[in-house]
Write a structure and sequence with these properties.
The protein is an alpha/beta fold and 691 residues long. The chain is 36% helix and 13% strand. The strands form four sheets. A ten-stranded mixed sheet has the order 4-5-6-7-9-11-12-13-15-14. Strands 1-2-3 form a three-stranded parallel sheet, with helices on one face. β2, α3 and β3 form a beta-alpha-beta unit. α22 crosses α23, α22 packs antiparallel against α27 and α25 packs antiparallel against α27. The chain is globular, with a radius of gyration of 31 Å.
Length: 691
C-alpha cells in the first residue's frame, strides 16, 4: 500500500530493537524477527511488480557482517545500525536515557556529565571499517562482487543443521523465508533494490510528486521580502494531505547562517503567517522556526509540530462546523514529538503520543490519546479534556495541567511512577494558566476555553497539576542555592571520622523515620557524580593489637545511605553479571536501593536470598562487582562501595537479631556428611537446610 502511494523507502524493524529507555518488559518477547517481515515484504513487492520502486531497510540489533549478509540475501537494500555504533562511542546501556543522568555522558544535557563522554568519530568509522572487511570476506565466500548482487538471493541461504530436528517435527518451517528466489513473474527479485532506485526513483519521484513543498515554495519569496524589510506578511492557501512538512523549508531559510538578525527573539508578531484551509499531510510545521506561524482551519495528519523550534501552530475546526471540537480528533499521532520551543494551540483532541519528549514548547489541547507527555523533559502542556492511558510515563521535566470533566479520574490513567498529581495552590501559577487559556480562546475560538474562563475560579480546584519528582527536586535545589547565605563548611572524610571516633550526629539519633527523611534529601539520580566514594577505613595497627575487633571501621548508617545513593541502578547491571560481576548473582542494585531508603531488614532479606554466607563473602571477597560497576568508568571516577554496604547489612542483621537458624520443619530420612566446617562447609550445610 505505501509503495503504491509513493513511498521511497520502507523500514522493516525487528523485535530486538527499541529505545534504550524502555523497560525489559516492554521490549522483550514483543514483536517478530526482522527476517520474517523483510522476506515477506520483499517477496510481496516483487509479486506485485513494485519491488524496484522502493528501497527496503532492515533494522533491529544488526551488529555483525553476517547480519548484513543475511539481510541482503533476504532482500534488504539498506541496513540500520544504532546500538552497535552507540556502544562504540562509549554507551554502556544503562537504560537511563530519559533521566538526563547518563554516567558516560552520551544521553545527557548536564554539562558536568557530558565531560565524561569520550567518544570520537573515529571510533564509529573504525567499527564500520571492520564490519565492511568482515562482509567482504563473506561476499568472497559466496561469490559476490558487490552488495547489489546479493539483494534477494535467498537461494544462497541454508537452514542450520541444529534445526533439522525441529523442522522434521513440523515445529519450524523456513521454506517461505528462504524460498523467495523461486518466485517467478512480477518485478525482478535479484538486484531489485538500491542499484535501480538511485538511478530511477530519485529523479522520477520528484517530478511525479510536485506537491511536497508547493506551499513553502509559493510563500518563500514573501518570507525573503519580510526578512529584508522587516514587514510581516501573510499567505492564504488551501492545503491537502499530499502537502507534507509544510513550513519546514521556510524554517530552513529563516534559520540559515547570516539570518540571525532577520527576526529578533524579542519580536512577538511573526514575520510570515500561513493561513491554510483543508486537511494537511504529515509533519505540518515540523521544525517550525521562530518567526513563522501556521493557522490551519481543518485537520492534520500525524507529526504536527515535530521538533517545533520556536514557531507557533494554531489548529481549529472549519468555521460553521456543528460537531463538538473537544470530542473529536483533529490532529494525528505523535504531535510535538521532540519539540524544543514554540507554541501550539489545538482546538480539538490529539491522538496518541502527544508531546512525547517535549523539552520546551507550550501546548494547549482539548484532549489526548494514550501515552501523552511520555518522556517529556521540559515545557508546559495544558489539556482541557480527557487523557488516555499511560499519561506522563517517564516524564522527568516540565509540567502538565489537566482539566478533565468532573466525573473523570485522572489518577486512573496517569502513570505516577515519576510524577506527582497535585492541585494548583500558587496564585501566580493560576494567573498564568488563566492567561494561557485566554490566548487559546482568542487564537482558536474554542468554546471549551470560553466555558473554562467563564467559571475559572470554580474549575481551578479541578485542575490536576502533573509535576515530575525530579523536576521538583531540581527546582527546590535551585531555589535553595539562590537564597542560602554564603557559608564555609569544613569537610571531614568518613575515614577520618571513623578513625577519630567522631560519630555522624544524624546517625547518633537516627531511627527509621529519620533515615527515610534523610533519603528524601539525597540526590539518588546523580549521586554517582555528586558524592565521593567512601570505603571502610582500616584501623591503625597500634589499636588493632589491643582488641579483637574488626580490622576496619564500619561507616555509619547515614554515611552508607550516601554511598548507596551513588548506585546508578542500571537497566543492565554489570555488577550482578556472573561473568564480569558477582559470581553468586547477588541482586546488588536492589539491596543498595533498600539501604538508601533506610529499609535495612528488607535489604538483609534480599541479600540472603542469593548469598547464605555474607558474613564471610562480605569480608574476603575481592569484589569483582566493584570492578564491573559503571560508576567507576573513566579517569577519576570511582565505583560504588558495594563491599562496604554488603558487610554493613549483615553486621547490622546480627546486631538486630535477625540472623537466626532456620532448620527445616520436616527432615527426610537421608543423611549427608559435610567434610570440613570452614566457610564452604557452613554455606553448604545452610543451603541443604534451605533446600
Amino acid at each position: 500500500g505505501v509503495a503504491k502511494a509513493g513511498a521511497r523507502r520502507i523500514v522493516v524493524a525487528g523485535h530486538d530493537g527499541g529505545t534504550g529507555a524502555a523497560r525489559w518488559t516492554g521490549i522483550k518477547y514483543a514483536g517478530l524477527p526482522w527476517e520474517l517481515g523483510l522476506a515477506e515484504a520483499h517477496q510481496t513487492l516483487a509479486l506485485g511488480g513494485l519491488r524496484a520502486r522502493v528501497a527496503l531497510q532492515a533494522d533491529g540489533q544488526l551488529k555483525t557482517a553476517q547480519d548484513v549478509a543475511v539481510a541482503a540475501l533476504l532482500g534488504a537494500d539498506e541496513f540500520g545500525f544504532a546500538t552497535a555504533p552507540l556502544i562504540a562511542l562509549g554507551c554502556v546501556y544503562l537504560r537511563r536515557c530519559h533521566q538526563n543522568s547518563c554516567a558516560v555522558g552520551v544521553a545527557t544535557q548536564d554539562p558536568e556529565l557530558r565531560k565524561r563522554f569520550a567518544g570520537q568519530p573515529e571510533h564509529v568509522i573504525n567499527f564500520f571499517h571492520y564490519l565492511a572487511e568482515d562482509l567482504r570476506a563473506l561476499m568472497a565466500q559466496l561469490g559476490f562482487r558487490s552488495v547489489a548482487e546479493m539483494i534477494g538471493r535467498a537461494d544462497r541461504l541454508r537452514v542450520r543443521r541444529d534445526t533439522a530436528a525441529a523442522i522434521a517435527k513440523g515445529a519450524l518451517d523456513l521454506r517461505a523465508v528462504i524460498g523467495g528466489s523461486q518466485i517467478s513473474g512480477g518485478d525482478a527479485l535479484i538486484g531489485g533494490g538500491v542499484n535501480q532506485i538511485t538511478a530511477e526513483i530519485d529523479q522520477t519521484r520528484i517530478s511525479a510528486d510536485p506537491a511536497g513543498h508547493r506551499i513553502d515554495e509559493h510563500a518563500l519569496p514573501l518570507l525573503k521580502d519580510a526578512m529584508r524589510t522587516g514587514r510581516a506578511a501573510e499567505v492564504e492557501m488551501d492545503v491537502a494531505n499530499t502537502d507534507r512538512a509544510v513550513g519546514t523549508l521556510l524554517s530552513y531559510h529563516l534559520s540559515r547562517p547570516g539570518t540571525e538578525n532577520a527576526y529578533g527573539a524579542q519580536e512577538k508578531t511573526p514575520l510570515l503567517t500561513l493561513r491554510l484551509q483543508g486537511s494537511a499531510g504529515q509533519s505540518l510545521g515540523a521544525f517550525l522556526a521562530q518567526g513563522l506561524e501556521i493557522n490551519l482551519e481543518g485537520d492534520a495528519n500525524d507529526y504536527v509540530g515535530k521538533g517545533l523550534s520556536g514557531g507557533r501552530l494554531v489548529v481549529f475546526p472549519p468555521r460553521g462546523s456543528t460537531f463538538l471540537a473537544g470530542e473529536n480528533i483533529i490532529v494525528g499521532n505523535v504531535c510535538l514529538f521532540g519539540a524544543t520551543s514554540g507554541e501550539a494551540f489545538i482546538n480539538g483532541v490529539a491522538a496518541e503520543r502527544f508531546a512525547v519528549r517535549n523539552s520546551g514548547a507550550l501546548a494547549v489541547v482539548e484532549g489526548v490519546g494514550d501515552h501523552g507527555c511520555e518522556y517529556m523533559t521540559g515545557g508546559r502542556v495544558v489539556v482541557l479534556g480527557r487523557i488516555g492511558r499511560n499519561f506522563a510515563a517517564g516524564m522527568s521535566g516540565g509540567i502538565a495541567y489537566v482539566l478533565a470533566p468532573s466525573d473523570f479520574d485522572v489518577s486512573l490513567l496517569a502513570n505516577t511512577e515519576t510524577v506527582a498529581l497535585e492541585r494548583i495552590t500558587d496564585d501566580a501559577e493560576a494567573v498564568w494558566l488563566r492567561e494561557v487559556v485566554q490566548r487559546h480562546a482568542e487564537l482558536t475560538g474554542s468554546q471549551r476555553a470560553r466555558d473554562v474562563l467563564a467559571d475559572f475560579d470554580q474549575l481551578l480546584a479541578q485542575v490536576v497539576k502533573v509535576y515530575p519528582h525530579e523536576y521538583r527536586r531540581a527546582q527546590e535545589a535551585a531555589n535553595e542555592k539562590a537564597t542560602e547565605p554564603c557559608k564555609v563548611h569544613k569537610h571531614v572524610s568518613s575515614d577520618t571520622a571513623a578513625q577519630s571516633g567522631v560519630a555522624d550526629i544524624e546517625d547518633a539519633i537516627a531511627d527509621d523515620a529519620a533515615l527515610v527523611k534523610r533519603a528524601a534529601r539525597l540526590d539518588k539520580l546523580r549521586g554517582f557524580a555528586k558524592y565521593r566514594r567512601s570505603g571502610d577505613a582500616y584501623r591503625s595497627a597500634a589499636r588493632r593489637v589491643n582488641d579483637w575487633k574488626e580490622i576496619s571501621s564500619r561507616q555509619t548508617r547515614a554515611q552508607l545511605q550516601t554511598q548507596a545513593a551513588r548506585c546508578i541502578d542500571c537497566g543492565v547491571p554489570f555488577c550482578q553479571s556472573d561473568s564480569d560481576g558477582c559470581p553468586l548473582g547477588n541482586v546488588i542494585p536492589r539491596w543498595n536501593d533498600l539501604v538508601f531508603r533506610g529499609r535495612w531488614r528488607d535489604a538483609f532479606d534480599r541479600l540472603m536470598a542469593t548469598n547464605n554466607f555474607p558474613e564471610f563473602t562480605g569480608r574476603v571477597c575481592p569484589a569483582p562487582c566493584e570492578g564491573a560497576c559503571v560508576a567507576g568508568i573513566g579517569e577519576g571516577n570511582s565505583p560504588v562501595a558495594i563491599k562496604s554496604i554488603e558487610a554493613a547489612i549483615i553486621d547490622h542483621a546480627w546486631a538486630a537479631g535477625w540472623m537466626a537458624p532456620t532448620p527445616p520443619l520436616q527432615r527426610t530420612r537421608f543423611s549427608v556428611a559435610i567434610v570440613g566446617s570452614g566457610p564452604a562447609g557452613l554455606a553448604a550445610a545452610d543451603q541443604l537446610n534451605s533446600a
